[in-house]
Structures are given as structure tokens and as C-alpha cells.
Amino acid sequence: MKKNVLISGGTGFIGKHLTRLLVEKGFSVSILSRNVKQDTTDISYYQWDVSKGFIEEKAVLNADFIIHLAGENIADKRWTTKRKREIMESREQSIRLIYDVLKTNNKKIDAFISASGIGIYGAINGSLICTEETPPANDFLGITCQKWEAAADVVETLGIRTVKIRTGLVLGKEYGFLKQLVPLFKWKFAVVLGSGKQYMPWIHIDDLCAIYFEALKNTKMIGAYNAAIADDTTNFVFF
């Protein structure tokens, strides 16, 4: 019988690529979505609404693994006070919904793998090299990522192996971060920001999905891992 992987945020850029990889590797996939979608042979869809505290519990109860990608897009809108609250709460509350189902039903899964971000280190300049042991920043993204990971750590208290993937800018043809930049390059509007010395840690979508798959099957992976290429790409070089 196929192992089932439940993905929150599975209809997004990363989720779609990851779903395709998992199906190719012989897994069945369940996806939590706010919208009703038609099941396929290998993919089942379940509804949830984080703002209303609703989740179809069957999605969690049928899962062998959970990959948590859900959360409001940090680049979609201007960071008003309201938007910042939405970004932060969407990450904490969505994990809490899943955690409550796991705890209430004493459900054990093989692993809980949560997205996080390299924003936990803040804006990196100069020669500072960040590892998983580098102290987190005290700015908005740093605090958001800390709370995001703290919410995931609560799942670990249930005796479930928990992994956190601190992701850089995700690049892929016609999608992800590049999709937003293409119009700027086309019309020559792309400009260096500030000093241009800020590092731009990035990762290709295929490499990121491979990391998630490794976290899924490698029982020795626990805790936080950086998912970004180790080079010296700065804002100036990138643009």
C-alpha cells in the first residue's frame, strides 16, 4: 500500500512541483485546499479554512507524512500592520489546526516537515556566513520565522520527527520569484536595492523538492536545515 503524504499549501508553486515528484516516487498525495477540487488517481483533496479554524480531519488521520507549506505570501501585498499580522498568524494557526487533530486523535505520523525561511537571519551583508546555528534576527521576517518554527516544534512534543526547511528565493522557469522579476527585466526596470551588497540566497525548485524528499525518507534528519545555494550572490550580482 502506498504511503500517503499530506501537503498544506499543495496548490502553490512549490506544492505542485513537490506533488509531481512524490507521485513519481510512488506516494499518494493529499492536499489541503480552501477550494473544492476533484480527486485524481494519486491525489486527494481536502478542505480547510484556517481563518475559521476548520479542517477536514480525515486528511490528517490518513496521512503517513505531513509537509507544511501553507502561509500567506510575503511578497503579495504591502506590509501594513494588518498584512504583517496575517502573514504571521497564517503560519502559526495553520500548524495549530494540524497539531490539534494529531493530539486529539493520538495520531502518529512518520514525520512533520515544515517550511521556514532564510529570512530568520535577517538581511545579510558583508562576509557573514549563516549556518543553522546563527542567531535569528529581530526584524519582522526574523520574528515571523521564529514563531513559525516554534509552532512546528510543538508538533515535535507529540513524539513526531520534525524537520524545518529554511528556504531561500525559489527559482523556476516562468514561476516563483523569477515570474515576478521577468517584467522588470523585460522593461529594464530591475534595479539594485540599497547598497546592493545584501546576499540573495536562492535555490532552484528541483533542488528544493529534492531536499523535501530527503527529509521525508531520511529518519536522521531532525531540526532546521538551510535550503539555499552556498555562493556569494549579492543583490548587485543578481540584478
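the 2nd protein, sequnce then structure:
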Amino acid sequence: MEGSPRLENFVIGLIVLVISISLHEFGHAISADKLGDPGPRRAGRITLYPGAHLDPFGFLMICFTMWAGFGLGWGRPVMVDSRYFGNPRKGMVITSLCGPLMNLALALVFGLLLRVLIMTGQVTAIPLLSRFALQFLVINLSLMFFNLIPIHPLDGGKILSGLMPLSLSEKFDSMMWQWGPIILLVSCFSGAGFLSSVISPAVISAVEFILGKS
């Protein structure tokens, strides 16, 4: 890939982020489908095609922030109706967890690939593959840890809610659906680096563990 380093980083990061967000949403869709919810299939979400999972405004945000040097954006949420599940609360935990698990799977696949390239001394011989593998590793770990933050509307909030006793879960949902999105927006755009300070240490530790450096 020829051109300026900034343009190359932008293209690689954009490709990786689009694929990773699409597979994250596909994880939610396929798990809900397997648990009996017909909605994701009717909506055309049981597919790996990124166009089915990307939100137009979220994609524009990805482009702008990726050009600025960091990736921030979102996909089109999968609408899940827990009434179709045999156990609605357990089903919501499973479907919410499957998005981050898809990111973990991608991180492991490309992290182990990068580890093999490092061990065999092929990193410099196949630089483009190495750069893609590193971006898949870091971006997917970042997406996983970000989405596991236990506030709504993130997956972590839904998972925590489903694991709580019902009475406590109802209070948590009432509070978090009101304040969670505001907390998230302020954290993302305040420039205080709060999210980075929370997520970065976990990502660095996970990268070192997968690459065998810890």
C-alpha cells in the first residue's frame, strides 16, 4: 500500500473498524436468531455484509475520527425482542455478550497470527499483513472492553442488568437508561481521557498476553 503514512493508517483502520463493528452486530443478530427471535432475520441482519450493520451517521463519525487519529463510531443496533426467548433475562445476557465475544474472537485470531509472524521473523517481510493483524488485535480488544462498560446503552449495562436480582435490575435500568447515554457522551467527548484511562490498561495487558510478552 503506497501513499502517505497518515492515509495508509486511515485506510487500514477504517477497513478494520468497519469489519469489526459489522461482526459485533452480527454476533448479536445470530445469537438472538438462534434463541428464537425472528426480528433480526426479518430485518436482514443475519449476514456478514457490512452495509446491513452500519449506521450512516456512525460510519461518518468513524471516517472523521479515524482521520483524526482515533476511531470512534457505531453500528446500527440489532433490535432484540426478549419475549421470544425461553428465558428472557438469560437470553438478553447471551445476546448482549455475543457482540463483545465476536470482537474477542477476532482479536485472538489476528493476535495469534501476529504472534506467529513475530516468532518467525516475518513482520518486516510481510508488513501490510502485520499492520492489519495489529490493528485487528488492538481495535477489537478496544471494542470489547468499551462495550463491556456496565452502563446503558452499552452491552455491559444489559449484561449486568440481566445478572442482577429482578427488583434491583428494574431500578438499575430506570436510572441507567436515563443517565447512561449522557454519561457515555460526556466521557467520549469531554477530552478528559477518562475512557482511555479505563480501557487502555486493559487493552495493553491483553495485547501483551496474546503476543506472549507478559
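Residues 33 and 41 are 7 Å apart (CA to CA). The radius of gyration is 18 Å.
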